Amino acid sequence: MFATALQDLWYGFGVAFEPHNMMWVFIGVFVGNMVGVLPGMGPLATISILLPLTFGIKPVGAILMLAGVFYGSQYGGAICSILLNLPCHPPHAVTCLDGFPLTKKGRGGAALGITVISSFVGASWGITEMIFLSPILVILALKFGPAEICSLMLLGLLAGSTLARGSPLKGVAMTICGLLIGIVGSDIETGTPRFTFGIPNLFDGVEIVALALGLFGIAEFMKSVNQLSEVDTKYTNVKFKDLRPTRDEFRRSIPAMFRGTLIGSLCALIPGTGPTIASFISYATEKKISKTPDKFGTGMIEGVACPEASTHSSVQGDFIPTMSLGIPGDAVMALILGALMIQGVVPGPQLISEHPDIFWGLIASFWIGNIVLVILNVPMIGLWVKLLTIPYKYLYPSAMFFVAIGVYSTNNDMFQVGEVILIGIIGYILLLLDFHPAPILLGFVLGPRFEENFRRAMLISRGDVLVFVKHPISAVFIGLCALLIVMQVYVRVRSPKSLPTEMELATDQHHHKVPSPAE
Amino acid sequence: MLRTLVKKRDFYSGTLMTLLGAAVILDSLTYTLGTLTHMGPGMFPLMLGCTLTFVGVLILGTAIATPLGEDERIMPEKPEWFAWGSILAGPIAFIILGEFLGLVPATFACVFIPAMGDKEATWKGSALLAAGVTFFGVLLFSYVLKIPFPMFRLGH
Q1: Mutation test of the interface with chain B: which of A192, A226, A431, A512, choosing the one with the most B Cβ atoms within 10 A?
Q2: Does the beta carbon of B46 lie under 8 angstroms from any beta carbon of chain A?
Q3: From CA A349, how far away is CA A323, in angstroms rounded?
Q4: Do A393 and B83 lie within an 8 Å CB cutoff?
Q5: Residue A515 has pLDDT above 50, yes or no
Q6: Is residue A86 over pLDDT 80?
Q7: Closest Cα to residue A334, out of A345, A324, A313, A319?
Q8: Contact (CB, 8 A) for A350 and A142
C-alpha cells in the first residue's frame, strides 16, 4: 500500500514536471497569490473567470492551474489580513486578530515570515494525508451502489450547506435552489425539457460558467462597489529582510504550527468544514491552551501560526473527498469538479484509476506549487505588498470584461451573456436577503448525478424508499445526516453563543467595511 | 405582530423560498410523475419543490419566533443605483455592440460603463482603463486564444 502510493506519487511528479504542466501550475499559483492579496477579489471569482480559458487546454493542465489559484490565494490572503487588517478572505479573518497588532508593533514582517513557514508545514501535511487516505477511500467507495452514493451525496450537500457561514436553514434553501437549477434542461432518461421556459438555449442546461460568474462575479461586484474603505498603506513597507522571525518567535510558533496542522487535517475530513471553520477552531484552541490567553489579540505570534497552518492543511485536505469520491465540500471544490466534468472527466471513485495522470499529477503539483509559493512570497514580498494598493475601481470594471467574454466563449453565444446578467441580479437579491449563494453551486454540480443515482436506487429497490436505511453503509450516512440536523437544532436552541455564532460575529464585524467574497 | 413581522428581513427570505417552492411544485406537476420504481421527469423536481416549500416555511417560522434584530434593512444604507445600473449595463452593452460592431467596441463599453459607476470615477480615467483592457483583452482573446469573434464588424 505504502509502496504503491509512493510509486504513484513518483509517476505524478513525472506528469507535473512536464514543461507545459509546470507552466500552468506556475500561472495558477501566481494568479492565485495575486488575487489573494488584492482586496475585493476572491478565489471563487477568479476561478470562475479562468474556467472558460481552460477549455482549450488539456484536463491535467486545467486542473493543475485552477487548483493552484485556490491554494495560491490562501498565501496571498494572509498578507492582506496581517498588513491591512482587512479580512478579505474568510479563512484569514482570524489572522487579523493577532497579525495586525504585530504589524503595529513593527513585527508584521516576522508575522508574514511565520505565516509562510506555517502555511508550508500545514500544506505539506494536508498533501501527505491526501496521498495515503484517498486510495483507501476509493477502495471503500468502489463498493458503493446507487443507494450509498445517494446517501453520501445527501450528507455532503447537507454538511456543505449547514456548516458554512450564515443560517443553516438558508444554506439548505440555497442548496435546493442549486439542485433545481441543475435540473434545468433535458431530462437524462426521457429527454423531456424541464424548467426551460421554452427557450431552446436552455435545453442543455444552465452553463456552470454563467452561474458561477453571475453569483461570484456580478453579484459580488454589485455588493462591493463604492463600499470598500480606503486602504491604509501605513504599514505596508515590508522588505525581504524583515521576514526573519526572532529565535523566540520561531520557538513559540513551532508547537502552534503543529497543533494547527492537526486541527486543519481533522476538519478537512468532515465534509463541509472548510478552511474557514478550521482556522477559527484552531485560534480558539490555541487561546484556550495558552498560558497567557489574555494576551491574545495584542500580537501573539502563536495566534498567527496556528490558524494559518490549519487553513492550509485543510485547503489541501479539501481535495480528498472531491477527487476520491467526487463529492465537493464547498463551492470552490464544486467549481473545480465542474471544470473536470466540462473536460469530459467523470468524477467519482473511479477517477484515480481511470485518470491517474490527473490525480497523481495534481498531488505532485501541490508540492511544486507550494514550494513555488514560498519562493514567490519570500523574496518578492515587496511586489505583493505593492499590489495591496491597487484600487477596486480598476479591478471590477476589468473583471467585468472577463465575465462577459468568458461566458460568451463557452458556447460562442450571446445568450449566455444575458444569462449571466440575470443570474447576477438574482444573486444580488439573494445577498440582500442574507442568503450566501455558495451552496447553490454545490447543489448545481451534484444535482444531476444525485437525481440519476436516486432514480437508479429506486429502480433497483422497486420503489422501496427504505432502501437507504436497509443498506448498512447507506444507513450510516443517513444516520450522520440525522445527527447533523439534530446537532444544528440543538446548537441553535441551547447555546446561541456557540462557535458558529462567534464566527459570524468575527466576520461580520468587518462585514460593513469589506464585503468578503463568498467563500 | 404582523406589523413587526413585515419589517423582518427573514419574512421576505422565507416568503420568497416558499413561493419558489410552490411554483416548482406546480410546474413539476405538468411533467410525467411516474411511479417510485420508474420515476418520471416530474418526480424529482416535485420532491425538491416540497422540500423547498417546507424550508421556506421554516425560515418564515424562525422569523416569527425571533425578536426584531437591529439591522433588518434589506437595501444597504446608501443604495448605489447608479453603480448597480452601470455594472449591469456593461455586459448589456457588450451584447448589443458585440452583435453589431464587433469585439473592440464591445470590450471598451463593457469596461468603461461599469468603471463610471465608482464614485471617484472620471471620464478620462475610465476611458484610459477601458482602452488598456481592450488592448490586452483583444490581444489575449483574438490572437492567443483565437475565439471566433471579429474585432470589428458592421451590421449582423
Answers
A1: A226
A2: no
A3: 8
A4: no
A5: no
A6: no
A7: A319
A8: yes
Task: Quote ipTM for the complex.
Answer: 0.92
- Chain A residue numbers with beta carbons less than 8 Å from the beta carbon of B88 are 218, 222, 421, 424-425
The pLDDT, as a whole number, for residue A465 is: 81
Q: Give me the phi and psi of A209, to 5 degrees please.
A: -65, -45
Higher pLDDT, A166 or A496: A166
What is the model's pLDDT at position B1?
67
Residues in chain A: 519
- The minimal CB distance from B37 to the residues A183, A420, A458 is found for A458
A69 interface with B at CB cutoff 8 Å:
no
CB A37, CB A380: distance < 8 Å: no
Once rounded to an integer, what is the mean pLDDT over residues A240-268? 85
CA A271 from centroid of its chain's CA atoms:
12
| CA A198 centroid distance within chain | 35
Across the interface, which of A180, A409, A458 has its CB nearest the CB of B147? Answer: A409
What single-letter DSSP state applies at residue A242? Answer: G
E strand segments, B10-106? none
CA distance A195 to A303: 50
| Among candidates B10, B39, B91 on the partner chain, residue whose Cβ is nearest the Cβ of A400 | B91
Mutation to test the B interface, candidates A50, A203, A401, most B Cβ within 10 Å: A401
In the stretch 150-189 of chain A, residues with CB closer than 8 A to chain B read: 167, 169-170, 172-173, 176-177, 179-180, 183, 187, 189
In chain A, what residues touch B107 (CB-CB under 8 Å)? 401, 405
CB atoms within 10 A of CB A293: 12
Cell match 490586452: residue? Answer: B136
Distance CA B111, CA B107 (A): 6
Residue A62 contacts residue A339 (beta carbons within 8 Å): yes
How is A151-215 classified by DSSP, letter by letter?
HHHHHHHHHHHHSSSS-HHHHHHHHHHHHHHHH-EE-TTT--EES-TT-GGGTT---HHHHHIII
The answer to whether residues B2 and A163 touch, using CB atoms and an 8 Å cutoff, is: no
Are B98 and A408 in contact (CB < 8 Å)?
Answer: yes
User: Which whole-number Å values give the CA distances from B74 to A293, A433, B1, in the listed order?
Assistant: 38, 6, 19
| Strand-pair partners of A185 | A194
Domain boundaries, chain A: 2-227+251-403+412-509
